[in-house]
Design goal:
alpha+beta, Phosphorylase Kinase, domain 1, D-amino Acid Aminotransferase, Chain A, domain 1, 2 domains, seven-stranded antiparallel beta sheet, 14 strands, about 25% helix, about 30% strand, globular, binds thymidine-5'-phosphate
């Protein structure tokens, strides 16, 4: 598909116009940032892995009836997606306390939550994506009561599905961030952005080793190997195409996951 003009450049992705009305091309960069752009690096191959991992997850979600912006993957770094107006809220779903939750409230790192916790953050880099309440969202008309109810319900369904999917391959889904938007073509609210080790915390089920962007945030090393490990366990990276020396995290789980066409 022919790429049109650049519409938007974010920290990890670029959006280009496509030949089709209301569809855009999402390009995954190798750039990684943390702490709202204060820490930056280029991690070779990250964009390729996130493109594949996000495609796998979003198409699996579509199969179980969770609508999202993915139309199809176009190539190693790009996918065709529905154009949406992003709701300026990051929806964070947590199963285990870690990261900003433990810092903010003094909860012990690794505390398993009795039920999933949904947090709302206002999407604004300059302000550091501050935590907001439903009341802030309604007061500033970032979304309506109905929309937040619908999105919260979807967040829990997505969490259920992803927890099961990752559990099957020996990974704990600790927490993750979702974005939703209004599809240009019909105004429907759908899941958008990406779901990848950039936007999730994923711990090896046996060892609690981190297999996500925290390896970059916390300078733990082996960032790309961790992303590869997730792709491999999900069945989307063949052993032979892996030219970067794998690191040993734990015994890989022998669970079969349906391969993408
Ligand atoms: P936090 O503990 O730093 O608030 O992060 C919660 C989850 O959200 C974690 O899985 C990482 C993800 N996340 C993003 O995807 N983008 C962000 O900008 C931030 C702050 C977190």
């Amino acid at each position: 598909m022919k790429k049109g003009k650049k519409l938007y450049e974010g920290k990890a992705k670029i959006l280009f116009a496509s030949a089709e009305k209301n569809l855009v091309i999402q390009h995954f960069k190798d750039d990684a940032t943390a702490f709202n752009n204060q820490k930056k690096a280029n991690i070779e191959g990250k964009g390729i892995l996130n493109n594949r991992i996000s495609e796998h997850i979003l198409s699996s979600l579509k199969e179980v009836g969770i609508e999202n912006h993915l139309i199809k993957r176009l190539n190693m770094r790009e996918q065709l997606i529905d154009m949406v107006d992003i709701i300026p809220i990051e929806f964070v779903v947590r199963n285990i306390a870690t990261g900003s939750l433990t810092k903010r409230l003094g909860i012990e790192d690794g505390t398993v939550l009795k039920k999933p916790l949904i947090e709302f953050c206002y999407k604004n880099d300059e302000l550091g994506d501050p935590l907001v309440s439903r009341e802030h969202i309604y007061a500033f008309e970032w979304a309506s009561v109905l929309e937040i109810d619908l999105i919260s319900e979807q967040c829990l369904r997505i969490n259920d599905f992803l927890q099961g999917m990752f559990k099957g391959v020996g990974v704990k889904l600790v927490d993750f961030k979702l974005e939703f938007g209004k599809r240009k073509s019909d105004g429907k609210i759908i899941l958008a952005d990406e779901i990848s080790p950039d936007t999730c915390r994923l711990w090896d089920a046996d060892t609690d080793k981190k297999l996500d962007k925290d390896r970059f945030r916390k300078d733990l090393g082996n960032v790309i190997n961790a992303y590869q490990e997730i792709a491999r366990r999900l069945g989307i990276l063949h052993e032979q195409s892996n030219n970067i020396r794998p690191i040993k995290f734990s015994k890989p789980k022998a669970v079969k996951i349906k391969k993408n066409k």
